[in-house]
Amino acid sequence: QCIECSYREPRKETQVRLEWENRHLRLPADETGDAEGVQIPLCPQCGGLIKPAVVFFGESLSPQVTQEAHDAVAEGDALLVVGSSLTVWSGYRLVRQAREEGKPVYILNLGPTRADKDATLKVEAPAGETLKKIALYLSE
């Protein structure tokens, strides 16, 4: 996603451009990850920087995404947190919202989370394997 104009393209297309624009380099550049000389793919519409369409640590969620998350918690009967320590406020505030609304909070995570004390139930197990078992159980 372009950080200037919000143009979006599939990751595969960005990868093709990255490889083409750096065909003169041997990638990965070296074992230490030094990317000196790597040409970063730029936005084909405005020339801005392209980055993965994810929120990196320290970045803010868009107000629209934040509102959609709050709406989803408000509409749901419970909150299920999977694979998150809830260290950042953007996730933890949804737990607080659910608890304030009197809804149960279920956490599936390996290791402690910021909301362990708020959880109705916490299961420490690998997420993928456990979710498959839950889905199988619910489909019976």
Describe what this molecule looks like in 3D.
By secondary structure, the protein is mainly α. 35% of the residues lie in helices and 8% in strands. It contains four helices and three strands, in the order ααβαββα. Strands 1-2-3 form a three-stranded parallel beta sheet. Helix 2 (63-75) runs parallel beside helix 3. It is elongated. The model has no long low-confidence stretch (mean pLDDT 91).
Question: Strands, helices and their partners?
Answer:
Elements: H1 11-21, H2 63-75, E1 79-82, H3 89-100, E2 105-108, E3 121-123, H4 127-139
Parallel strand pairs: 1-2, 2-3
Helix pairs in contact: 2-3
Quickly describe the structure.
This protein is mainly alpha-helical and 140 residues long.
